[in-house]
Design brief:
By secondary structure, this protein is α/β, with parallel strands linked by helices. The protein has a single domain, classed as 3-Layer(aba) Sandwich (Rossmann fold). The chain is built from nine helices and eight strands. The chain starts with 13 loop residues before the first strand and ends with a helix.
Length: about 230
């Protein structure tokens, strides 16, 4: 797979941000990168782009070899935009498409393909090599960037995460019952915690950030204080 992203040239900290779905890590990682003047690397968007291609081309999501072969022939590119990162799949913008509910339901299965993940991890490490990066995902601090200068593990209660996801989907015109979202997120949590060396875990050196019932500004102030000490 070719990510088509030039290596980051800015010097600075390498910051890893992990956590379960819906905890707010992507929003926080994006804002933190903006405040620090760093590159934001949305690893979830990369996997979502590949999941979108797998669905569009009819690839069997249980066929690791087919998914890995697809990744090797795919270009995923991240581009900084006025309203955040833009995501391109084989030079077609898919920024909105990768956030659809059907992608949410299958992305964990696609990202579980080991060969595909190896391609992704190597590209992500190359992007982060020079520092000045905030990278979020599920196994960034534990596997992708184990020597990151600062590691955060962002979490929130299951109920809070489901409520937030419901609001996000409602804003896009999707009316999804809360109990369905609770079940979907709980199932994804279980999948993400059981992926071997790529499992969702809080490493001993990661700083726990619980966003339940907290404002973004409050959490951001805490993140910045740790980065400035780092």
């Amino acid at each position: 797979m070719t990510l088509c992203n030039p290596p980051n040239q800015a010097l600075g900290l390498s910051i890893a941000m992990d956590g379960p779905a819906g905890a707010g890590k992507s929003t926080l990682a994006k804002l933190l990168a903006e405040r620090l003047g760093y590159l934001y690397v949305d690893t979830g968007a990369m996997y979502r782009a590949l999941a979108l291609k797998a669905l569009r081309t009819g690839i069997d999501l249980t066929n690791d070899a087919a998914l890995t072969d697809m990744a090797g022939q795919t270009c995923v590119r991240l581009e900084r935009g006025i309203l955040g990162n833009r995501v391109f799949l084989d030079e077609q913008e898919v920024t909105r498409d990768i956030r659809e509910p059907e992608i949410e339901r299958v992305v964990s299965r696609v990202s579980a393909a080991m060969g595909l993940r190896r391609y992704m991890v190597e590209q992500q490490r190359q992007i982060a090599r020079k520092g000045g990066v905030v990278m979020d995902g599920r196994d960034i601090g534990s596997y992708v960037l184990p020597n990151a200068d600062v590691k955060f593990f962002v979490t929130a209660s299951l109920e809070e995460r489901a409520r937030r996801r419901q609001e996000q989907q409602a804003a896009k015109g999707h009316d999804i019952p809360l109990n369905e979202l609770l079940a979907d997120i709980a199932a994804r949590d279980e999948q993400d915690r059981n992926k071997g060396e790529h499992s969702l875990i809080q490493t001993p050196d990661a700083i726990l950030i619980d966003t339940t019932d907290r404002s973004v500004d409050d959490v951001m102030a805490e993140l910045l204080s740790h980065c400035r000490r780092g």
